[in-house]
Request: fold
Amino acid sequence: MNVRRRMPPLNAVRAFEAAARHGGFVAAADELAVTASAVSQQVKGLEAWLGRPLFNRLAQGLELTPIGRQYLQPLTDALDRIDVATRAVMPTPASRTLAVTSLASFVAEWLAPRLPKFAQAHPEIDLRLSTTDRIVDLAADGFDVALRHGYGDYPGLESEFLTAETLSPVCSPALAEKITCIEDLAKQVLMHDVTAGVLTPLTWQGWLRTVGREDLIPRFPLDRGPGFSDSQFLVQSAIAGNGIMLGRSMLVADSIRNGTLVAPLGFHCRSPYKYYFVTLPGGKSEPKAAAFREWLIDEMAPYREGDDES
Reply:
């Protein structure tokens, strides 16, 4: 059945409804991004179309007439319904953001310096990085990706091996001149990662056991020297020449390359921990996550040294 609707000009209706809500033409004009004069003219046109006044123009502002008050609420309801209906059928714009969580040390020492390259390769993606030492709940905390340093066993999540890591004493070039063999380390200030698990290769004692020099443990000043709970500060302290740290290859790679740190004994000891790309099930195939994953794999290729997950 054909229905002939009596429809006033929509722009005029919007002008009247906004002016009535705000109590003036100026505020309505700000909302509608037009001039106050244009709002006033639209309202006058609507009043002419209706043949009834909607406002009393007073010195102190606008006052709705009884007809205006009667007309306002149904119009507001109708405009709200139009807004809801329109939003329901419009496509939702795809988010540009990829939320990533990682250890602060890895972000500071390896990832952050390379982010301009990612931005250049993927200008359509905005990374949101959060650094924390705790294991976050990806779903509850709203993260798409976690870059984790561990064993790769994360129940309920998908984890993909990225790269392994090796360990070795590293220090400033000046201190490196004093070290020609492992025994020389006992004469230096040793700096410690206080978060490393007892006897893992991330500790000096664990490293000596792993490289087969457990006999040197009594000669090393393992109970002395500064300790750090954040590896990035450990790296910076080593660069400053404050002592020798047990360097993780990924975290000191750039410092070794630019000469601010030296590994006088080379890198030979494999760390028990590896880097993993972790997502909710199916998350790594999401386009933004997939692009970030492929970029990471390419960037890490020079550091893998033929490593695999075994």
About this structure: The chain has a mean pLDDT of 88. The longest strand covers residues 97-102. Residues 10-89 form a domain with the Arc Repressor Mutant, subunit A fold (CATH 1.10.10.10). The chain has three domains: 10-89, 97-164+273-304, 166-270.
